[in-house]
Design goal:
Order of helices and strands: HEHEEHEHEHHEEHEHEEH
Strand order of the largest sheet: 3-2-1-4-5
Shape: globular
Structural class: alpha/beta
Strand content: 5-15%
Largest sheet: 5 strands, parallel
Distance between the termini: 93 Å
Number of strands: 10
Radius of gyration: 26 Å
Length: 302
Amino acid sequence: MAAPQLGDARYGNNMRQTHSRVVTIMCALFFLAQCAVAAPQRVVSTFLCTDEYVFRLVPREHIAALSYEAVDRRPVVSTIADAARGIATIHPSTETVLARSPDLVVMYAGTNPRLHVNLKKLGVPILDVPWANSLADVRVITTMLGEKLGAPDKAQAMLAEMDREISHARASAPKPPVKGILFEPNGYASMGGITDEVMALSGVSNVAPAAMLTRTGTLPVEALIATAPELLVLGGEARVGSARAYMVLHHPALAALKGRTLMEFAVLTPLLCPGPWSLNAAATFGDLARKSRALAPAKAPN
């Protein structure tokens, strides 16, 4: 077939198709360029839980500073304590934040109110991150941060890894679930939120008695013993004397549960800040649940 010539109807159709393709390509290139320009270049995070996200989503060279808690080792409260070494850290204040010349400050909603007010008055861009109370919230917040920080692919990769860990936890969880309690420093019994979801996915049914909690949210040792769960996860360090908050985890009265309850210490740092990394705790809960179930015949009354 002869090539279409000027004035030929086929020539006009081909030119319209070519023009359409060129416009599409140019629009795509413009969009990508805008995304690259929009991505913040000097990000400061002012709180432990925003540190976790910023470190994972922002290129290292564009992190102007994280909070000092990100690399603190007394105690370790961050999942990135080792990986984030070498990145500048600050004790957040107006002066320390401004000294890093940020083009975006990532803050946890409701934290550092004075700093928030001062930065807003000075016109410093702020990204407030809401608290996640469920894994559904984690999905929404992670996706939002991926968009705001110019890293949507990294955000989706984090969620994909979270989904893989959820699937693995469900598949290996003991059935029926083990009745358990997570007893934390100062006598707090973890109830609700993401921790409950992770426990449930791992085969642990949280039986902490809400009706027996004190007004401050702690669970008296007497109530813990009366509940006698199959599994008691002591959320802290096994060594004695490292901090006053851990003393209750070594209470001598807990000896009354021996033979009835599997008691194990576990450091559950991934649960301190809600995020896709929180599913890393599922392996710990799952291992302890399976261990408790395996010991069940030996714990049964004669």
